[in-house]
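An instance follows:
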Amino acid sequence: MNMHVPPGVVAPAPPRSLKDTGLSIVMMRDILLKTVFRKNLETVNDIANALCLTLPLAQQLVEIAREQKLMEAQGTLHAGSGSEMTFQLSDTGKARALDALSQSEYYGPLPVPLDLYKEQVERQSVRNIQITQDRLMGSMGHLILPDDLLSNLGPAVSSGRSILLYGPPGNGKSAISNGIRDALGDKIYIPHCIEYAGQVVTMYDPIVHTIAGAEEAETTSSLRRTDNRFDKRYILCERPTVMTGGELSLSMLDLNYNSTSRTYQASLQLKSTGGVFIVDDLGRQEEPPQALINRWIVPMEAGYDILALQSGEKFEVPFDTLVIFSTNFHPNEMFDGAALRRIFYKIKIDGPTQEEFLKVLALVAKKKKISMNEESLIHLLKKKYPSIDNLFANYHANFLIDQMISVCDYEGIPYKMSPDLIDRAWANMYVVDEEIKH
C-alpha cells in the first residue's frame, strides 16, 4: 500500500531513537513484555508491527530485554518465520509481564506522550481550515437552504468556534451539522493512545475515527515500506465526528476508567480533537442544558480541557474541536446570558416559505418519480396546511411522498399524487389529538 500523506497536514516524524519516543525505557520494556505475552509474538518484525515501532527500534528494545534476561533467542528458526530469528520470554520475563499486567492490562501500540501529542494537535488544528463557499455548498448540495444561511454558516465554520443551530424541528439542523462535518474534508493523525504520568489513555475509536483510504488493508510488507513515512503510533484518519443526542451525559466528557483492566479510555470530546462534536437535540438530555454548556465553557474559551486520573490528579489536554449544538428550543429558554455569550455563533434554522416548500416538493417528486398534479397541490395547500397554521417544515416533502409511494406499492398502482393519498400520508405525519378511553 502506498500511504498518501495529505498536503497541508504535517505528519508526525517517526522517532529515530528510543529516546525520541518520549517514553521511559521501563514503560516501553513492560509494554513489550505484555504484548509478547498476550499476543504470543516471536519475531522482531511482528513485535515492531504490534508496538507500532520501526524495525531498528523494536530490535533495540528486544536487545534491552535480552540483556535484562527477560527475553531469550529460541535458537531455532520456525518454519513460518523465514530467515528471522525468533524470541520468547524467559521465566523471569513472564513473571515481569504478569506483574505489569496486574498494574495495567494495556498492551499493543506504544503511546504518544501528551506533550508530543499537543504539538501534533497544533499542526493539524481544526482552526487552520479555511472553508470556501464552494466547499460548503458542495457538502450541502443535497439540501435546499436559503442563501443567507450559507453566508452565516461559512464564517462560523471557518473560525473553528462553537455554533448553536436552533429553530423548529424537522428543518434540517442535523443534516446541516453533518454537512459542516463533510465540508472539513481533509485528514489528520490520531494516536492509538496517549501517555500522561505513566498512565495510558486509549484514543483511537473505530466508531469515531474513520481510517483514511486503504490503510484498513495494511499488510506486514506494506508496513515495512512505510516505516519511515510517519510515526506509526498514529493512524491517518478523516477528521473525527462525535455525534450525540439525548443520551449525552456529563460523565461521557470525562476519562472512562475500567477498574478491571486498570486502563483509561479517552473522553468523547478528547476523541473529537481536530474534528467536530455535534450535540443534537440539546434540551432532551437528562442533564439540564445550562449544566452541559457550563462544562464546555472553559474548553471553548481556553482551548484546553481539564481531566482527572483515578488518583485525583488533574491535567490539561488539548481542546481543538468545532462544537455544534442543535436544538428545537429557543436559546433564551435554556441558557443564561453568560452561557450565550460563550457560544460564538447563533444561527436560526427556520422552516421554509410556501414557495421554498413547493420547490423542495417538486425536487423530491422528480427524484422519486412520482407525478404531481394541480388538484393535489391545491388540496395540500388549501385544506391541510391551514390546519397547522401553514407551518411548513423541510422534512414534510420527503415524508409525504414516501408515504404515498408506500401506499402505491402496496396497492399495485402507478406512482401518483391524489387528494386521497395526501390525506392518508398526512394522517401519519400528524396524529389527531383525541382522548383515548380505557
